[in-house]
Design brief:
Blueprint: E1 3-7, H1 11-22, E2 26-31, E3 42-45, E4 61-64, H2 73-90, E5 98-104, E6 114-116, H3 127-140, E7 146-151, E8 153-155, H4 161-167, E9 172-174, E10 178-179, E11 181-183, H5 184-199, E12 208-211, E13 217-218, H6 219-229, E14 236-238, H7 242-247, E15 251-253, H8 256-259, H9 270-280
Parallel strand pairs: 1-2, 1-4, 2-3, 4-5, 5-7, 6-15, 7-12, 8-11, 9-14
Antiparallel strand pairs: 10-13
Helix pairs in contact: 1-5, 2-3, 6-9
Length: 281
């Protein structure tokens, strides 16, 4: 069994930690306030924005899963750049087997409905994507084996943004624009799967994966389906203007690489995932 640090142990991190503890691993959860960490996760109360005290000296894996609390450059810098630097400094000299970094598919700049894979070019046209890519580069250049996983739009328990928009009559979709998503349980599942692969001695773990479900879907189709399930009469549609196309995330993300490792999604499409969320409302 492994010793695993989850740095930035928020929603995904806590769910991952619980799963790893259930498998027999020792899990440390690092976050600013630790009173709500689930039972079984060993608390490390610290702020990634500042220099860290020495971390446990027998770590096997690091899962860096921080998030920026605000959409501001300084918040993104602290979450994805200085935080990574502080963790790497605090584990200097350790024999970490692999450093996992949770990133975002927003770093892909395509907007014309293209199929996007791990080989597709990225864009640093915004401060948020620039900081994410800076963090990725720090991890790629660190002295340990590393893996970046870029998740698409995360939904799941407590992440009901689209459902709330439809229920509140505020849903609005652009015609002909693709969207991509992943259920939070599959974010956890993919990370746990990759850790297990490493523990089993698999040497074929890639340095980059895209984490989305099997079904890139036109946004209007998702909204209309949700409206039908929620008995909402209509969704406002509009034809995207050139500027709105440039600002939208119109791409079809491929999860072929992570699926080729043998990972089977718990929620392979939006209907499976949202049906369960609607039942739980």
């Amino acid at each position: 069994m492994a010793n695993i640090l989850i740095a930035g142990c928020g929603g995904i991190g806590c769910e991952l930690g619980v799963k790893l503890v259930s498998q027999g691993h020792t899990v440390y959860g690092l976050r600013r306030e630790t009173s709500e960490l689930p039972e079984g996760i060993k608390a490390i109360e610290a702020d990634l924005a500042h220099t860290l005290d020495p971390l446990p000296d027998n770590l096997d894996y690091i899962v860096y899963s921080a998030s920026a609390g605000k959409y501001k450059d300084i918040a993104y810098y602290q979450a994805y750049v200085s935080g990574v630097k502080h963790v790497l400094e605090a584990v200097k000299g350790q024999a970490i087997k692999r450093f996992f970094f949770v990133s975002s598919t927003s770093v892909f700049g395509q907007f014309e409905g293209e199929v996007v894979t791990e080989e597709s070019p990225t864009s640093d046209s915004t401060f948020s994507t620039r900081r994410l890519l800076e963090g990725e580069n720090l991890v790629n250049e660190c002295p340990f084996d590393s893996t970046i996983i870029r998740f698409g739009g995360i939904y799941g328990p407590g992440r009901n943004h689209l459902i709330n928009l439809v229920l509140d009559g505020k849903a609005h979709c652009l015609e002909g624009v693709y969207s991509n998503r992943i259920h939070s349980s599959d974010c956890v599942g993919m990370l746990a799967h990759l850790i297990d692969m490493s523990e089993q001695g698999n040497k074929n773990i890639e340095s980059l994966y895209i984490g989305v479900d099997n079904q890139p879907t036109l946004s209007c189709e998702v909204y209309e389906w949700l409206a039908e399930q929620l008995s909402v009469s209509e969704i406002e549609h509009s034809e995207p203007k050139e500027q709105s196309r440039l600002m939208s995330s119109n791409k079809q993300l491929s999860n072929a690489r992570i699926r080729s490792t043998g990972y089977e999604l718990l929620y392979p499409n939006y209907q499976d995932g949202y049906s369960e969320l609607i039942q739980d409302l």
